[in-house]
Amino acid sequence: MDEQLEIEHESTAAPAWAAFGDLMAGVLGAFVLVLAAALVGQLDLATRLQAEVQQRMAEQSRREALERALAGPLADGRITLVEGRIGINSAVLFATGSDQLLAEGRALLGALATPLRTYLAQRDEILMVSGFTDDRGVVAGMQFADNWDLSARRALNVTRALLADGLPPDAVFSAAFGSQQPVAPNDTAAGRALNRRVEIAPTPRPRRAAAPAVSASAP
């Protein structure tokens, strides 16, 4: 009788231990999955942080290289350099309401051409020449349709001057912003003067898409 009870006890205990073992195995498996996910997340975060640090170091290196290349014009105050953008007050380049370069502005662009050409030769970048105006409309009777037109022609003439001074044609392009993106309020004469400007900004060269593979035709 006692032997029969012992056998029955063992038979009921075995499934319980098996279920407990399965439960612990499931818990351990879930823990391993959570730990693996946490490790993958940490590795991904570390990779992203490293890429961000490298990007910031590259940007800092680019700015320092540009500052060295433009040390002369920067020192005498003829240009500004803010976050990698070279700023030139419009009054230095153009008369009021005109898109024709002044002699002073033409000489300044000539002085910028050599250091910019050297800078571009060492880096895989191109220059964006951007024209900006204040928010006052063009005077009636002028040859420009609006501020977009004026800023576009000014940017284009600066681009042509830089090309004439030896910058590679595939390394310079122009853009027009009109009165958009002001750097100062337009409610004072000083602010409007700051907004009438041309900026020259190095930017990464666009990557060309790979040409599609051409399959050989059957004979």
Automatic annotation (TrEMBL):
Residues 81-206 form the OmpA-like domain. InterPro entries: Bact_OuterMem_StrucFunc (IPR050330), OmpA-like (IPR006665), OmpA-like_sf (IPR036737). Residues 197-219 are annotated as: Disordered. The chain crosses the membrane at residues 16-40. PROSITE patterns: OMPA_2. SUPFAM superfamilies: OmpA-like. Keywords: Membrane, Transmembrane, Transmembrane helix. Gene3D superfamilies: OmpA-like domain (3.30.1330.60). CDD domains: OmpA_C-like. This is OmpA family protein. It comes from Roseateles oligotrophus.
